[in-house]
Amino acid sequence: MLIGPMLKLCPCTAEEWRVRVDVILAPGQASPALDGRPARDEEVVHLSGYRRVSWQLRWPRAREESLHGYRLDGRIHAVRVPGAGLAPRVAFFSCNGFSSVAYARRVGRKNALWEDLMDREPHVLIGGGDQVYGDELFGKAPLKKVENPRQLAALARPPAALTSAYFQLYARRWMGTEIMQAMASVPGIYTWDDHEIFDGWGSYPPKLQDSRGFQAMFNAAAAAFDLIQVGPGWTGSSEHRYQALRLEGEVELVVIALDLRSCRTREQVLGEAQWAKLKATLRGLPALPEGRRREILVVSSIPLIYLRFASVFEGLPTELQDDLIDHWESPCHRGEQLKLINNLLEHVQPDRTRVTVLSGDVHVASRGQVVDTRQGTQRKILAQLTSSGIVHPGPNALETALLRLASREGPRRLEPGLESSLSDVGAETIMPTRNWLSLWFDKPGDEGRLWAQWRTEEGPVQPLVVLT
User: Fold this and answer.
1) Considering its fold, how many domains does the chain have in total?
2) Which end of the chain is more exposed for a tag (fewer CB within 10 A), N or C?
């Protein structure tokens, strides 16, 4: 096999845990058998000569956590199944690679945090984007300095070769590593961000964004992402890769993975079709039976609440320009940021439904919140937890100091009665250390809390974050 096995999370009932096992095959590779079963014809998807073969697995959810497994190519993979009705333990990560050789040289054991993640025995993996870094496919080509679309077209390879390059990138960066071991045992849901394509996709000037070279790169990256990372929560829309899953139980978990790249321009982030899908998902959730509660995790690869940089920096001709325009906090996107905040707050019900935003991208850990005290509404809180990256190193001391100097960290009034702010992770507003985020939930009948802990190579970050 080229890539795999890789477990994808499926919608689950309180009584049954459902996953899909995916294997990616290169042209000419034969399909393996899982527990002696070949994949059925309808579970084989072809794309550019590459194939994804899949098997559906279902296990009963016992009263307490149970251990199950499957055999593929002679190897047994163990899978932990959460107890009936209980919310699963969740591991959230992002930025699983390096944007340059210089950053790679800063790191000793690059996958050390993957070992720590598996030691925590999560039931669900959530990938917040940048699970691979496509930048390396173009060598030292200075994409950010290219101004002539003809120049850029020369960087793009023929479509078939470009698509193959992205597939091989995943295989090279994942196979035989701790990330593949985790993905084989823990079912996941994954969104993408710019580095699955290349740095800054969507935030370049239109003459580049719409050029033949850029579009060829996007199409190849999207083909690989669709076959390798997208799971059963995707509707198959050609306009976006929005995914949503519902895990039923006395503590119900809903995971919504937004796609911040397919429709991104300097003027918009999500696109109208995805907005409609998000609203339909939230409004279509069934009413909760008495005594039950719901946790909604919304994955936004870019932090919804983060440092706000002065707009003057976005006009400077620096290599950081596209990164600044990427942010929800950019003046380009603040209207859409407020729209998303209001849409999510509409579904917060104190003591019944909590909405939490999970994000990556920025190579630091941070924590934010939006507090809604508008007249005529019950006080609501929308929490933002950012974890980045599990492999990519954070900024050094000088870079961190410059980030703080160039930004504003205090509370900000979004509109009357609506305020956002950042809180400390450990002892600092932004923690520039490699990290991943462990999440778990109170059992039914307890106080309904969400527990969150960032974990680093030095150990867990204290104090624990408790959302009530």
Assistant:
1) 1
2) C
Provide the residue count of the chain: 468
Cα–Cα distances in Å, from 123 out to 15, 18, 79, 86?
15, 12, 8, 11
Residue 240 CA to residue 232 CA, distance in Å, equals 14
Contact (CB, 8 A) for 57 and 19: yes
- pLDDT, one tens digit per residue, over 276-322 is 999 999 999 999 988 899 999 999 999 999 988 765 455 554 455 55
Cβ pair 71, 37 in contact under 8 A = no
**Residue among 100, 105, 110, 55 at smallest CA distance from 79:** 55
What distance in Å separates the CA atoms of residue 201 and residue 213, rounded to the nearest whole number?
12
Paired residues of 78 in beta bridges: 69
Place of tokens 């845990």: 17
Using CA atoms of 110, 116, 119, 121 in order, give the dihedral in degrees to the nearest 10: -100
Only one residue has tokens 């993979």, namely 77
The pLDDT assigned to 153 comes to: 59
Interacting residues of 75 by C-beta distance below 8 A, sequence separation 6+: none
The reported pLDDT for the residue numbered 312 is 46
CATH number of the domain within which 312 lies? 3.60.21.10
Which 8-state DSSP code applies to residue 302? S
DSSP bridge partners of 91: 125, 438
**SS3 state at 49:** coil
